Amino acid sequence: MKTRMSLSVVEFANDEGLLIIHSKWLLGTEQCYCPPYWSNGSKLKKAILAAEIPNMDSWKLYDMRILRQAGKCIV
């Protein structure tokens, strides 16, 4: 089954790299939440596809900038 969702490509401050995230994880235009397992590709993919809501107790807040946004992506 294909799902429509809004995705963002973000570049982390301090040269921490790039990541595709669900746009629900954005906090404004300069910060985003990422799950503690963000470096585990399969878990991250599941979190994005499930449109997980950030858990403020366990997800870390990162400084970043948005490189691209794509609304209504079909994945």
Textual characterization of the structure:
The chain has 75 residues and is mainly beta. The protein has one domain (4-74). Helix content is 12%, strand content 47%. Strands 2-1-5-4-3 form a five-stranded antiparallel beta sheet. The longest helix is centred in the middle third of the chain and has 9 residues, at 41-49. The model has no long low-confidence stretch (mean pLDDT 88).
Secondary structure blueprint with pairings:
Elements: E1 4-12, E2 18-22, E3 26-27, E4 31-34, H1 41-49, E5 60-74
Antiparallel strand pairs: 1-2, 1-5, 3-4, 4-5
Q: How would you spell out the order of helices and strands?
A: EEEEHE
The largest sheet has its strands arranged as 2-1-5-4-3
Number of domains: 1
The portion of residues forming beta strands comes to over 45%
The rough form would be described as globular
- Helix-and-strand structural type: mainly beta
Helix content: 10-25%
Radius of gyration: 12 Å
Count of runs of 4 or more consecutive helical residues: 1
Number-wise, the strands total 5
Distance between the termini: 9 Å
Which whole number gives the mean pLDDT? 88
Largest sheet entry: 5 strands, antiparallel
Low-pLDDT stretches are none
Summarize this structure as a short list of keywords or feature phrases.
1 helix; 5-stranded antiparallel sheet; about 80 residues; mainly beta; about 10% helix
